[in-house]
Amino acid sequence: MTFSDLGLNEILLRALEREGYTTPTPVQSQAIPALLQGRDLLGVAQTGTGKTAAFALPILHRLLADKRRPAPNTARALILAPTRELAAQIADSFRSYGHFFRPSVGVIVGGVSHRPQNEMLARGLDVLVATPGRLLDHLGSGRLKLGTTEVLVLDEADHMLDLGFIVPIRQIVAKLPKQRQTLLFSATMPREISALADDMLRDPTKVSVTPAATTAERVAQHVYLVSGGAKRDLLVELLNDREISRAIVFTRTKRGADRVAQHLESAGVGADAIHGNKSQSQRLRALDGFRKGRTRVLVATDIAARGIDVDGVTHVVNFELPEVAEAYVHRIGRTARAGATGQAISLCDNGERPLLRAIEKLTRQTLEFTDRRAEGARQDDGDSARPAPKRPNSPAPHRNGAQHPRRDGQRPPAKRADGPANNGQKRRANGGARYKQASRPQV
């Protein structure tokens, strides 16, 4: 199947050829025909599956079929996104796909001045991409009216739920006409999102390109069990592998992101941090540097990372496991995009073992791991361990066999009779007695 088989306007086909698009992804081939017929849609699709084009192309096709100018302070299509970065990237996609007829596309997000947004809204927009909070500000001031909006898209609805946007979304939907086309996309489908879909959608076409709460098949996943104080050193060791050409490192907190980025910089690994405490200009500058290759590693929190849609991310590293298991699915979805492969590495200390078990339960898989803890720090939660088979010439876990110095009161690893401590034992992360020897740290 090609894009021309989907019935899209010739002007859009020219733009797709210009962007190098040849074959529709599964979500595009399933969603676009139904959307061109005016159907509502419920899509379960992870990031990197091509879902932005799946909803942007039918909207642009609709605008081409009816080229009337939008009235002042109105928008013909409204797309709601959870973060500023994601909103900006969706708008960029609309501009790229609409290159040959140039629809008016605007972005409404917080963290910037109201005045340019007011001026933009006064002209009327074909496509408005917005975050819910700032959009409600403009609705409250009367500078935006949604009574004539034809299409509503909720992108990454499960993340909207995580951020507490469900009530604002319902307030926004109440301003929209009942006769509209509504699309809802989510990587996972918790009960609250199902209830929202039931309220908003009318006889929707359902598209699912991956089972709910499963991870991308092209992502190789591995866990390192490590003492908390040794995480930073292990992170530097892993990132010193030049095969990691572009990596995103996830932390739970904004302060943690800054500290990790500073530690990497001091170790000679080029890194920048992106999180909610950064100004919009700082976030865009960091993202632009990462996208253009000036920065090799981007350290991010979950909220900020939802807008990171960058091709060529070879690795995702969970410096800290997420407290919500669903976030793991979103995190590792930042690699293996557009048909590529990728690797996801998680650093897990003893206190994070329950989080690891929750991830494995949600994703219905058992992750293999390498144990890099000192002998005295190992807690196997009742696993019946048996010695790993010896493999001669296995390299030591640290480069040149050197042990790291003490940090944060960590006790140095005890030496074993058969070689350096923690000789890269690799086995199933949360159960099973089967061990196998890791030849080197997997990156």
Strand order of the largest sheet: 10-11-9-12-13-8-14-15-16
The tally of domains stands at 2
Helix content: 25-40%
| Overall pLDDT | 84
**CATH fold-level topology of the largest domain:** Rossmann fold
Low-confidence stretches: 382-428, 431-443
Determine the number of helices (DSSP H or I, runs of at least 4 residues). Answer: 15
**Mind telling me the CATH class of the largest domain?**
Alpha Beta
Number of DSSP strand runs: 16
Give me the CATH architecture of the largest domain, please: 3-Layer(aba) Sandwich
Strand content: 15-25%
Please compute the radius of gyration using only Cα atoms. Answer: 24 Å
List the topology elements:
Layout: H1 10-19, H2 26-36, E1 41-44, H3 51-65, E2 75-80, H4 84-97, E3 105-108, H5 114-123, E4 125-130, H6 132-141, E5 151-154, H7 157-162, H8 166-173, E6 181-186, H9 191-200, E7 205-208, E8 219-225, H10 231-239, E9 247-250, H11 254-266, E10 271-274, H12 280-291, E11 297-300, H13 302-305, E12 315-318, H14 325-332, E13 342-348, H15 353-363, E14 368-371, E15 425-428, E16 435-437
Parallel strand pairs: 1-6, 1-7, 2-4, 2-5, 3-4, 5-6, 8-13, 8-14, 9-11, 9-12, 10-11, 12-13
Antiparallel strand pairs: 14-15, 15-16
Helix pairs in contact: 2-3, 3-4, 6-8, 14-15
Description:
There is one protein chain. With 443 residues, this protein is an alpha/beta fold. It has two domains: 3-208, 3-Layer(aba) Sandwich (Rossmann fold); 219-437, Rossmann fold (3-Layer(aba) Sandwich). It is 34% helix and 17% strand. It contains 15 helices and 16 strands. The protein has helices at 10-19, 26-36, 51-65, 84-97, 114-123, 132-141, 157-162, 166-173, 191-200, 231-239, 254-266, 280-291, 302-305, 325-332, 353-363, and strands at 41-44, 75-80, 105-108, 125-130, 151-154, 181-186, 205-208, 219-225, 247-250, 271-274, 297-300, 315-318, 342-348, 368-371, 425-428, 435-437. It has a nine-stranded mixed beta sheet with strand order 10-11-9-12-13-8-14-15-16, sandwiched between helices. Helix 12 links the parallel strand 10 and strand 11. Helix 3 (51-65) packs across helix 4, helix 6 runs parallel beside helix 8 (166-173) and helix 14 crosses helix 15 (353-363). The radius of gyration is 24 Å and the shape is globular. The chain starts with 9 loop residues before the first helix and ends in a 6-residue tail after the last strand. Mean pLDDT is 84; it is low at 382-428 and 431-443.
